Amino acid sequence: MAAPVTVYPPDEDGGRRVRAADRILGRAHGPRDLFHLLEEAGWNPDNVDLDGPLIQWRGGGPTVWQPTDGDL
C-alpha cells in the first residue's frame, strides 16, 4: 500500500513538492511548511509523525531540505 503523502527530493531552492494521492499540495521548505500544507489539506498536524508510515520520503527524509549534487 502506497503512503498517502509523498514528499519529493529538494529542488535547487530547497523546496520539496508535496503530494497527497493525486493532488499536489504545494512546496515545503521545512517541516513547518509541510505541516501547514497537510493542515490545509485536512490532516490534523498533531497526528502526523514525520518518521511514520503516513509519509513517503524521496531523496532524503525529514531532515533533508537542501539538494545534493546528484539531485540537480
Descriptive account of the structure:
There is one protein chain. The chain has one helix and four strands, in the order βββαβ. The chain is an alpha+beta fold and 72 residues long. Strands 3-2-1-4 form a four-stranded mixed β-sheet, covered by helices on one side. A hairpin with a 2-residue loop joins strand 2 and strand 3. It is globular, with a radius of gyration of 11 Å.
From the spread of the alpha carbons, the general shape counts as globular
Instruction: Give a quick account of the main beta sheet: strands, pairing sense, barrel closure.
Output: 4 strands, mixed
Number of helices: 1
Tell me the number of strands.
4
Poorly predicted tracts of residues: none
Radius of gyration: 11 Å
The sequence of SSEs as H and E is EEEHE
Arithmetic mean pLDDT: 89
Strand content: 15-25%
Short description:
This protein is of the alpha+beta class and about 70 residues long.
Notable traits:
single chain, 72 residues, alpha+beta, 14% helix, globular
How are the elements arranged and paired?
Elements: E1 5-7, E2 16-20, E3 23-28, H1 31-40, E4 55-57
